[in-house]
Amino acid sequence: MAAPVSGIEGTRDVMLRRAARAVVVNDALRTYPNECCGFLFGHVGEDGMVIWRALPARNRRRENRRRRFEISPGDFMKAQSYADDCALRLVGIYHSHPDRPAVPSDHDREQALPNLLYLIVGVRQGDVGDERGWELKADRSGFSEIPVRRQLAPGKD
Amino acid sequence: MPVKLRIPSPLRRFTDSRSAVDISAPTVRAALDELVGRYQDLRRHLFDEQGDLRRFVNIYVNGEDIRQLQGMATPLADGDEVMIIPSIAGGAPGSDRALL
Question: Min CA distance, A115 vs chain B (Å)?
Fold first, then answer.
């Protein structure tokens, strides 16, 4: 079966490469106590999704950056072009929940796009907890969790 | 010659993987109505229960945000390019009010 042309349709397994995770973790720590946000790029195949790269994005919210993030349409377009240029797919969005668990909020649901992985990292007092992956349900009623595995050692999937 | 609607990658799942859809329509609203008429699963992701465009959905005509034009009533001419571009937003549980 050919891989889907776009999005993460049917993905039930996500592997987060070390380099991509390092970007997410460093961004979460650097931005604490505010929320960080960024894009995830990778491939989706029959064996699931592999996230190869993460790129931090600018949080354009001016207020309440501890609880909210927003990425501009222009940055979304740049990320889509970046994916095309790198022959990767824009597979997801990451953001942090400072001093909150890594589960989606109602606010996340209202704003979420389908067919993207929402990777959330919980950060407490400068300590990064587990990252968890979520996908918006087709009827927008909530999120389904997609297990995220870390790459255990360089070069090993 | 119709207008070209550009579809962002997460929504192409609902347009048979098409990145662009050609539609003949006199206004932005008519073009979007035609689009969600053809691809009905797209509707709930572009419009809310009241039929209004969702807040995170941005529409550009030839590179200009329709909020700076005539909104959904913005007229379209043959060859125009209409881009649907999401702004990505979210955040942790809790009040939207600024914390002390």
Answer: 5
What is each CA distance from A157 to A26, A48, A49, in whole angstroms?
22, 12, 11
Q: Assess A5–B contact: CB distance below 8 Å, yes or no.
A: yes
Total-model pTM: 0.86
Cα A98 to Cα A128: distance, rounded to the nearest angstrom: 9
Q: Using one digit for the tens of pLDDT, what is the confidence trace for B18-62? A: 999 999 999 999 999 999 999 999 999 999 989 999 988 999 999
- CA of A72, closest CA in chain B: separation in Å? 5
**Amino acid occupying residue A65:** R
Which residue reads 């206004």 in tokens? B27
Contact A28/A128 with Cβ under 8 angstroms?
yes
CA–CA separation, B26 and A66 (whole Å):
43
Cβ pair B86:A139 closer than 8 A: no
Q: Which residue has the tokens 């501009």?
A: A72
Query: How many beta-carbon pairs below 8 A join chains A and B?
Result: 118
DSSP state of A105: -
Q: Which of B8, B11, B98 is closest, CB to CB, to A63?
A: B98
A63: distance to nearest CA of chain B, Å?
Answer: 6
Contact B17 A4 (CB under 8 A): yes
For residue B95, give the nearest of A64, A94, A33 by alpha carbon: A64
Give B56-83 pLDDT, tens digit per residue. Answer: 899 999 999 999 999 999 999 999 999 9
- What value of ipTM does the predicted structure carry? 0.78
Residues of A whose CB is below 8 A from B45? 113-114, 140
C-alpha to C-alpha distances, A140 to A2, A115, A135, B48, nearest whole angstrom: 27, 11, 10, 11
